[in-house]
Amino acid sequence: MLLADLLAKPNGTRLLSGGKFKMSRKPQNRAVFFLFKSLADFLVYGSNRVPAQLNAMLGYPGSDPDHPKSLPPDTIPQFRFIDIPVSTGTLATPLTMKFDVVIVVSGAGGGVTAATLAHDGLHVVTLYDRGGMNASEDASIAVIAGKTLGGGTTGSKKTIDAVCDRLCIGTAEIKHNKSKTILFDGCKKLGLYVEDFPQNARNQPHECGDCGFGCTRAMKQSSALTWLGDATADGVQIIQSCHVEKALPSKDKKTARSVQDIVGPHKIPLIIEAPTVVLGLLPACMAVGYYPEETRPLRWNGPVASKQQLAKIIYAACVIVITCDRDRNARIVLDEGGSPVIQFVLSPFDGASAAEDLARAAQILIATGAQRIVTGQLNVPAFEPPSTNVGDPKTVAFLEKVRAKGVRSLHTTLLSAHQMGSARMSMSLARDVTTPRGQVRGVQGLYIADASSFPKSSGVNPMITTYSVTYSVANWIVEDIQSKSKIDSAIHV
């Protein structure tokens, strides 16, 4: 925590509060502000050693204090890990292991694929690469990817039904907390369409509040508890903390050296040896409303204002808005060391869409009685609505300011929890990476089976779509292997 202590001193505080950096016309100055602000937030709130007095001020009781001390037998799959000592293998004498199928990065896509192929009798291993927090090269958007078994989850109607049944997805027994009730009530008052989003919680009441960090009660049916559990039962093995650099083709460069490789969005340039690929990020931002009663669900604006906001956090409700990035203005390029780097600039069209989303979110908060509204726009000050009437002249002026200032890179706090479309699937031979069956063009045995194959950004949470597309690709892989085996058998005879 030495760095946090240094940032807490006067000069560090001035840097974090922005000063000339925050509103500078130079992007590099604003990038410095965003970098230090994000670093300080991570060091304090991302640490497992958060001071008790801070938790007390936030009204945070700790990680699910009422979680059961033990779970029923067989609730958590007994995964089969391959333990490889760090000293094993060298460049001169590399460690060699043989499998029918190698799956790289096992989130929503990898778990489904592993279970489907292993059930067909194939010898499968899954390699878990590094995940977690990332960011674009200029720090204009935070990129969140799952860093655990199951990745970020912790086709035809028949395919979707199969996926929803396995994940126990439904809307029964959903109970809204205060923040979700505010969202529902606000939408209804404004005449906006609203409905429950199906949850993978076995259609049982579930309010632990920790599912975003891994459900301690094993109620959330993630890929790890479902598809990877099935895969484990069929003999799938797992290698953790495995950094994958590239898939090596055969000498004729037409066949993957391993029988199948399934990869994830960030590694596409490495796998297909492309210098640059397009990436969909679904950029998200948020509006926060403060209410007179507790909601218990930051924008950094200087040390005093931030502490004041934190002290009132139990009275705050947050509405997160996800923008479908029509222009897909993100790129993955390889740096000088060969590592993938995300470059991102929000296009004017997508920025205007995001600003309209923020304005609608603010309307919802105002209509439900929020006394103070804060957006993530650095150039839009907090607003105290005079009433719940969204037609009030002062409120209308505020909403117009939200739209006029817009959402721009390094002017608004942005994050991405859903990356997709870096290896588009289509019928086009010249433009896209994979065939409609998920196979990388020109390389037999190399498949893309996750959200990387989306032809466009989904605009909504892509979990069910990712599972469904992957389920289809996995079954096509089985068909391709069976067809190849029949041909090989005929030739052998």
TrEMBL record:
This is Glucose-methanol-choline oxidoreductase N-terminal domain-containing protein. Belongs to the GMC oxidoreductase family. Residues 342-469 form the Glucose-methanol-choline oxidoreductase C-terminal domain. Gene3D superfamilies: FAD/NAD(P)-binding domain (3.50.50.60). Residues 158-260 form the Glucose-methanol-choline oxidoreductase N-terminal domain. It comes from Allomyces macrogynus (strain ATCC 38327) (Allomyces javanicus var. macrogynus). GO terms for molecular function: flavin adenine dinucleotide binding; oxidoreductase activity, acting on CH-OH group of donors. It holds the Pfam family GMC_oxred_N. InterPro entries: FAD/NAD-bd_sf, GMC_OxRdtase_N, GMC_OxRtase_C.
